[in-house]
Prior knowledge:
By secondary structure, this protein is an alpha/beta fold. It folds into two domains: 16-70, DNA polymerase, domain 1, CATH 1.10.150; 77-342, Aldolase class I (TIM Barrel, Alpha-Beta Barrel). Helix content is 31%, strand content 18%. Strands 1-2-3-4-7-8-9-10-11-12 form a ten-stranded mixed beta sheet. The protein has a two-stranded antiparallel ribbon with strand order 5-6. α4 packs across α5 (178-189), α6 runs parallel beside α8 (248-262) and α9 crosses α10 (315-325). The protein is elongated, with a radius of gyration of 21 Å.
Amino acid sequence: MAHSLLExxxxxxxxxxxxxxxxxGDLLCGHGLPPYRAHQLFGWVYQKHIRRADGMxxxxxxxxxRLEEICDLSLPEMTSARASRDGQTxxxxxxxxxxxxxxxxxxxxxxxxxxxxxxxxxCTLKCSFCATGLMGLRRNLRPEEIVAQVMTMxxxxxxxxxxxxxxxxxxxxxxxxxxxxxxxxRILHAPEGLNLGARRITVSTSGLVPQIRTLGHEKLQLGLxxxxxxxxxxxxxxxxxVNRRWPIRELIAAARDYGRLCGRxxxxxxxxxxxxxxxxxxxDRLAAMARELPSKINLIxxxxxxxxxxxxxxxxxxxxxxxxxxxxxPAVTVRHAMGGEIxxxxxxxxxxxxxx
Length: 356
């Protein structure tokens, strides 16, 4: 069978970070090893953060010598790690096994450390204000390439924070790479993995309605962030072409059902573009939509991308929009842009990033 251009080429040895414990046990059995060794390996890699077989002292020497031929424990090469001026945001460029580059971001606030993950190299949805969309879709990421982003950033920060958050808001549309993303999440969520609570993981989507509904039945309590960005189909068709397939009314209905099914408030993400979607009438319509479902609104003043025509509203316009929402919407926050000077902010990841 011909290999899909959207999928990575097969690996010589299975990537460790794409295997759950049962799959790793089966792999070990195929090499004549007892499956309980999988539990030991997971402990070394995810709990003790040991990446080399020779450091796994409770494994027989014969197993340690064979481990590299059984599965690949290596992480992608970090070709760049750029820090913001305040040192609170880092953007990482990772080179994958086929030479492809993927970007991910860590953000520290007084309350938490958050890792922003990519799910694809590029994106096919072509949201008109996003740098990643300018790349087109080069390929999907494997589960191990998604988990490896977490491990790489965790290693960089020396695992100082045991209660960090994950957001799938980097390069790509997570729900367009549904299977690998969910497989990676289950590995990270598993008690024998990083044991990361599902409520600390948020999946963002531009509006793939069928996948939103499927995600709601996964029996996970993942956060869902919907990239809304407009309150009329006319404007959203222009900003997010996926709206032509699943218009706002269908998207809000799916988000409402997800929130009720999972017992989670859905985040309505709204990039504010000067003179496009930042009027008081937009605020009134957005508040009415938010009241239809368990939700909160996250306002994102536009982060500029070279070559794109959009402008960020003035601070006064952002404040006016937020104040219009406050008495009418369930909950409203204004996102503080982090890492804009290193092209690490929302909508800036992709081939235009300097130094990559």
